[in-house]
Amino acid sequence: MGIIDDLTGAVGRGINLMMDREIRLGVTGLSRGGKTAFITSLVNILSTFGEVGTAERLPRFTAYEAKNISYGGPAKPRDLKVAAFPYLRACDSLFAETPAWPEPTSGISEIRLELVYEKKDLLSFSRKGRLYIDIWDYPGEWLMDLMLLKLSYAEFSDRIRKRTATLSAVTDVSSWLKAGAQLKADAPVNVNDLHHVVRLYTDWLRESKDKGFAMVVPGRFVLPGDLEGAPILEFVPWVWDLPEGCGEGSLYRTMEERYDAYREKVVRKFYRECFSGLDRQVILIDCLRALMGGRETFMDINETFDVLMENFSYGGSSILGRLFSPKIDRVIFAATKADTVTMDQYANLLSLLRSMVKQAASRVRADGSNCEFMILSAIKAAKCMYAEHEGKRVQVLKTDYDDEPPFFPGSIPSGWSREGMEFFQKYFKMRELRPPKLNPGEPIPGINMDVLLQYILGDKM
Ligand code: GDP
Fold first, then answer.
1. CA 295 to CA 166: how far, in whole Å?
2. Does the beta carbon of 33 sit less than 6 angstroms from any atom of ligand 1?
């Protein structure tokens, strides 16, 4: 039954792809990068298609008017086993009397919507076309695991060994390193001792994550989902000297087996379910948070995204090519939360983003995919306005809350430099803004969402 279901699904998707009727959009980013806010805003915009005022709000989404696009309603999800993205719950939070940011989801979720548009046939007769947009959301913590797909246990251990050296000045590496040094690789597993080291290793991962580092693996250690307490999560990288002769049943072999099982049963499954069929990808990056974390965090993001990109197949896609070997043909790297800087800083934010994902972007381009950079805010929580300061007109931000006076958050550097970063860390006022106050039914305001729509959808109708 499973195989038949899979085949039927694949054929159905094949037909949709062949007719160019479906876009499977992956929304990628580190945890707290803004994925949940982004999907909520995107669904909100798509569901206003066809309503009065939508064209005016999306002036740069030129396909909208040209193709007379309207919203066709929620569509049957592609995978009935996957949770639905909790759009209504997200709206309940945002539109509440005291608005709150939507809660991020703790597992994989999907939402699929139908768009209806006008298309001309060969004789220039108009008829209705349908396009399904299938959006996938998953926790950022799990995303990083994709890099494990290509690493053996020994290679994974080696990578972490190198990281302990670079991160020892900024995180507490020594606790788990010291405790782990007491473990005996060639002896049978002592469940309690191993569990103790796993716990300390997980604490280190959590600390790294909180400090904005991207490479936090294995991701299920910090967000186990339904694997909480399972033996498959009871291993650590072996970063100490390895004695000869670690045979069957030894601690080392057991951890290697668990790592392999983790890679195959957890990570590969996740990859198959979420990523293997993506057509387009939006990669959301919170550049300011990374810059606040300092040089190590900044470099870490560049390196991590580069390693991650190895796991996606990019490339221009002909219809037939996509039917047999789906490929991501468009990628957008977006600096999120652009509403937390003033407009005069947008150019710098964009160039900061470019410098941050330089390696990853060149990998995507080298593989033949189209790649764009942009800044955006999915849910705009502050307006940029002018104010007088010491006789000069300056740009400031103002939220919807009367008890919050206008403020100038500060300037941001246009790229990586030690001085630029230090200046930023010292003077930039980074704050988590409260969500905007919205009236029921009011469209969620954003920045540059129309540019993004044109890039994702413009050529598909
Ligand atoms: P996720 O973990 O990637 O799903 O991230 P979320 O979408 O939950 O966003 C994390 C936090 O970032 C939110 O709770 C907000 O505080 C903030 N955030 C997300 N998007 C925006 C935005 O467009 N503007 C502002 N000001 N804050 C945002």
1. 11
2. yes
